[in-house]
Structure formats: structure tokens, C-alpha cells
Amino acid sequence: MNVPSFEPADYATQLMAKKNRLIELLAPFDAPEPEVFDSPLANYRLRTEFRLWREEGERHYAMFEQGDKHTPILIERFPIASPLINELMPRLKAAWQVSETLSFKLFQVEFLTTLSGEALITLAYHRPLDDAWETAAECLAAELNVNIVGRSRGKRIVVGRDYVSETLTIAGREYHYRQPEGAFTQPNGTVNQKMLGWAYDVLGERDDDLLELYCGNGNFTLPLSTRVRKVLATEISKSSVNAALANLADNGIDNVTLVRLSAEELTQALNEVRPFRRLAGIDLKSYAFGSVFVDPPRAGMDPDTCELTRRFDRILYISCNPETLAQNIAQLQDTHRIVRCALFDQFPWTHHMESGVLLERR
């Protein structure tokens, strides 16, 4: 097993290696030197997932090397996870050790926490959940002061709420986010806050409109909406759309129209390839788009969506995969150039990196 180094003295070396890798990938496009945003060295991860492994009559938290489902790494504490996750882990384990109702056929545990101190625990089972389980889960939720979601095949029971509330501060303003169970959220809250601040600064104060693709739960939408006249945002995940709508309402933001469309579908709509009922009542031609913001999945933008972004004077791109970022920029480089770029160390002690670029029309 290849165990990464967690020595603080090694962190600067690892971060420099990521910076050099990003510089190398963006070198063909004459990119400026990236701004670098580091991570706390421990307790930075706000969500994590464990399988359970039964040994000597007890269930233990476990992780596995990729591709190996038979050699568990038993976990008692998890230093990269938030302090709240580390506090809850032994208390939850003690609870299932003494409760057959909670432990029977329990095979996976997920923790979702926030910088603001909330927690949700998901318990997944290979058996139907009944009233006895729900009663035990209610007692456990009260004891741990958490929300609990129980999952089994075809069933989902919520004890408390099925989301946590996060508060992030960007440019002196607090934004409140609902983060639903099972939906994507940024795992490193401290670096996410830095990333939002960078995007807010880079977009700048605008007197035109913003198109946002892949908006998720509105992580970027909320602060960026204060920099422009109005926003048209798209997202395909129903749970993320519902969370984003709640977040816009909770923060009193009324200049955003959110549509449940994929980036590919919106591209077809803007190209007038086909109409969409979900766009009924929305006059796309009323928008004066000056910038487009994209935060695509690891595969990057598909070629048609990438071609769509070429129409905009400014492209603000956040990427979780620098290789596909470079591929997309290669498609755009004849009309756009990189004027700002950044490295966000969302995943310290790993080779993964988050990056951002601002491209402007040549």
C-alpha cells in the first residue's frame, strides 16, 4: 500500500508540485503564473464515507484501496475530516455496538458536516427499515444532536432534516446554503470559501448579465449574482435545483432565473435547435450576456458546450480536472486568452487539484 506523507514539512513540496503541473498544462496557452490557495493541513474535509467491516463480532469503520474490496483499512479516527466528524465517529460506533436495531445489516455510514457546526449522518442497510429502526434513530439523533437519514433498497427515512445549513463569508457578506443529503457539495469548506472569493473578485462589478452552467446548489451563484445585472443559471440534478431555489430565497436574491436543463440542452436552446417546455416564459433574447461561468464535472465541457462559451467575451471556468480544462482551452485559444488563473488545493495530500481560469476575448 502506497501511504502518502502527512508530514507538515512535506506539504509545501506537494503544493509546489501541483502548481508546477498546472503551469505545465497551461504553458501552451501563455497563461500567467497561477495564484495558489492552500488548505489547512488537517480537519479540512467536511464530508466522508465509510464502509463497515465486521471483525471479532464488531463493526468497524473501514476504507479500501481502489480496486481492492477485500483488504480493509480499519479506521478509528480520521485526521483529515472535520473535528465534528471525528467527535461523532466513536459516539456513533458506541451506539450501534449496543443496539441490534441500529447495527443489523448496517454496511455504510456517511457524514456531512459544515463549518457552521451542523451534521447529518446517513446510515445505509441491506435490510428493510421499520418503525423500530425509526424509533432508535430518533433517540440517536437527539443524543448526538444530528440529523439522520436511513437508506435501504427503495426506502429513505429522514429523522430531522435531510440537509445541513452552511454559512460562508465572501467579500464581507454572509451567504447561507442548504446542502442536501446525497447531493454534491464542496468537501473542503475553507478552500471553497477562498475559491468563491477568487471568482467574485475575478468576475468584478458588471453592468451586464451572467450565464451559469452546472450551478449545483448555487454555491457560486449566490455571490456572483451580486456582481451582475441578472443571472440565468442551469442545473440538471433535481435535488440540487431544489436546494439552489431554497438558497436563493433564503438569501433574498431575486435576480437569478434557474432552469433545470443540462448544459447540452441549454446549448441546443440557445442555438434554436429545439424548444424546451422548461424554458417557457423565459425570453432568452432579453439577456445581455457578457460573461459565462462554468464548473463542469471531471469530463469537462462537451465540444458543443465549449463552442457555445466562445460567444462570450469572458469565460470564468472552475475545473476539478486540469487535463480536461486544458483540452477545453485548446478548443478556445484561437478566440480567447487566459488573463487570470488559480490553483485551489481542495484535496491536500493527494494528486487531485481544483483550478480556475478567466479567459477574455482576444
From TrEMBL:
<feature type="binding site">
    <location>
        <position position="214"/>
    </location>
    <ligand>
        <name>S-adenosyl-L-methionine</name>
    </ligand>
</feature>
<dbReference type="GO" id="GO:0000049">
    <property type="term" value="F:tRNA binding"/>
</dbReference>
<feature type="binding site">
    <location>
        <position position="186"/>
    </location>
    <ligand>
        <name>S-adenosyl-L-methionine</name>
    </ligand>
</feature>
<dbReference type="InterPro" id="IPR010280">
    <property type="entry name" value="U5_MeTrfase_fam"/>
</dbReference>
<dbReference type="InterPro" id="IPR029063">
    <property type="entry name" value="SAM-dependent_MTases_sf"/>
</dbReference>
<dbReference type="GO" id="GO:0030488">
    <property type="term" value="P:tRNA methylation"/>
</dbReference>
<feature type="active site" description="Proton acceptor">
    <location>
        <position position="354"/>
    </location>
</feature>
<dbReference type="InterPro" id="IPR030391">
    <property type="entry name" value="MeTrfase_TrmA_CS"/>
</dbReference>
<dbReference type="GO" id="GO:0005829">
    <property type="term" value="C:cytosol"/>
</dbReference>
<comment type="similarity">
    <text>Belongs to the class I-like SAM-binding methyltransferase superfamily. RNA M5U methyltransferase family. TrmA subfamily.</text>
</comment>
<comment type="function">
    <text>Dual-specificity methyltransferase that catalyzes the formation of 5-methyluridine at position 54 (m5U54) in all tRNAs, and that of position 341 (m5U341) in tmRNA (transfer-mRNA).</text>
</comment>
<feature type="binding site">
    <location>
        <position position="295"/>
    </location>
    <ligand>
        <name>S-adenosyl-L-methionine</name>
    </ligand>
</feature>
<feature type="active site" description="Nucleophile">
    <location>
        <position position="320"/>
    </location>
</feature>
<feature type="binding site">
    <location>
        <position position="219"/>
    </location>
    <ligand>
        <name>S-adenosyl-L-methionine</name>
    </ligand>
</feature>
<feature type="binding site">
    <location>
        <position position="235"/>
    </location>
    <ligand>
        <name>S-adenosyl-L-methionine</name>
    </ligand>
</feature>
<keyword id="KW-0489">Methyltransferase</keyword>
<dbReference type="Pfam" id="PF05958">
    <property type="entry name" value="tRNA_U5-meth_tr"/>
</dbReference>
<keyword id="KW-0808">Transferase</keyword>
<dbReference type="InterPro" id="IPR030390">
    <property type="entry name" value="MeTrfase_TrmA_AS"/>
</dbReference>
<keyword id="KW-0949">S-adenosyl-L-methionine</keyword>
<protein>
    <recommendedName>
        <fullName>tRNA/tmRNA (uracil-C(5))-methyltransferase</fullName>
        <ecNumber>2.1.1.35</ecNumber>
    </recommendedName>
</protein>
<keyword id="KW-0819">tRNA processing</keyword>
<dbReference type="GO" id="GO:0030697">
    <property type="term" value="F:tRNA (uracil(54)-C5)-methyltransferase activity, S-adenosyl methionine-dependent"/>
</dbReference>
<dbReference type="GO" id="GO:0019843">
    <property type="term" value="F:rRNA binding"/>
</dbReference>
<dbReference type="InterPro" id="IPR011869">
    <property type="entry name" value="TrmA_MeTrfase"/>
</dbReference>
<feature type="active site">
    <location>
        <position position="320"/>
    </location>
</feature>
